[in-house]
């Protein structure tokens, strides 16, 4: 468990959203969302079970959420919908809302994935902030989630502290 907490000592909130038509209609059991939820909980976040949304509905789900930055959790991670097929729209839903991009996080994530398989870079991802929320889109594979956790684990506490204003300069 980490010492991550908000200024008032409460656990910071997080949300995991899975873009998967097959998981949303019950023909496939998502195996990425629960891994991210478990990791976030172990890191001290207050996070509900992952929300699963069909690919075709991801923009309609994320756009209103991201437009109301005051009600966003401190961390929002998505998985799925980052490929290059016409129904992969998670990047398109998230990117216009990012106020500050964190391209270095994405580069580190893809470098880790590329070391395991060159195909890792055939997906897309964005990371950044919306208000005081860190947002990152991840491909919907277990390997990508494993790479994301390995990339974010040494960063997440400092990142949340910065969003909480604990490291303001």
What does this structure look like?
It is a single chain. By secondary structure, the protein is an alpha/beta fold. It contains seven helices and six strands; from the N terminus they run E-H-H-E-H-E-H-E-H-E-E-H-H. The protein has a six-stranded mixed beta sheet with strand order 2-1-3-6-5-4, with helices on both faces. Helix 5 (103-116) crosses helix 6. The model has no long low-confidence stretch (mean pLDDT 93). It comes from Corynebacterium atypicum. Residues 15-159 form the MoaB/Mog domain. It holds the Pfam family MoCF_biosynth. InterPro entries: MoaB/Mog-like_dom_sf, MoaB/Mog_dom, MoCF_biosynth_CS, MPT_Adenylyltrnsfr/MoaC-Rel.
Keywords, separated by commas or semicolons:
single chain; 169 residues; alpha/beta; 6-stranded mixed beta sheet; 7 helices; 15% strand
């Amino acid at each position: 468990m980490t010492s991550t907490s908000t200024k008032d000592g409460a656990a910071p909130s997080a949300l995991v959203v899975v873009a998967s038509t097959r998981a949303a209609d019950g023909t496939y059991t998502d195996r990425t969302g629960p891994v991210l939820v478990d990791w976030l909980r172990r890191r001290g976040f207050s996070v509900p079970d992952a929300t699963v949304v069909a690919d075709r509905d991801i923009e309609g789900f994320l756009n209103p959420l991201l437009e109301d930055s005051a009600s966003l959790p401190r961390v929002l991670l998505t998985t799925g919908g980052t490929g290059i097929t016409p129904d992969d729209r998670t990047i398109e839903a998230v990117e216009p809302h990012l106020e500050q991009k964190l391209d270095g996080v994405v580069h580190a994530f893809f470098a880790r994935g590329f070391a395991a398989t060159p195909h890792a870079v055939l997906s897309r991802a964005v990371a950044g902030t919306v208000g005081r929320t860190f947002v990152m889109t991840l491909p919907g594979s277990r390997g990508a989630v494993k790479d994301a956790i390995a990339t974010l684990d040494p960063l997440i506490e400092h990142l949340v502290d910065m969003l909480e204003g604990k490291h303001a300069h």
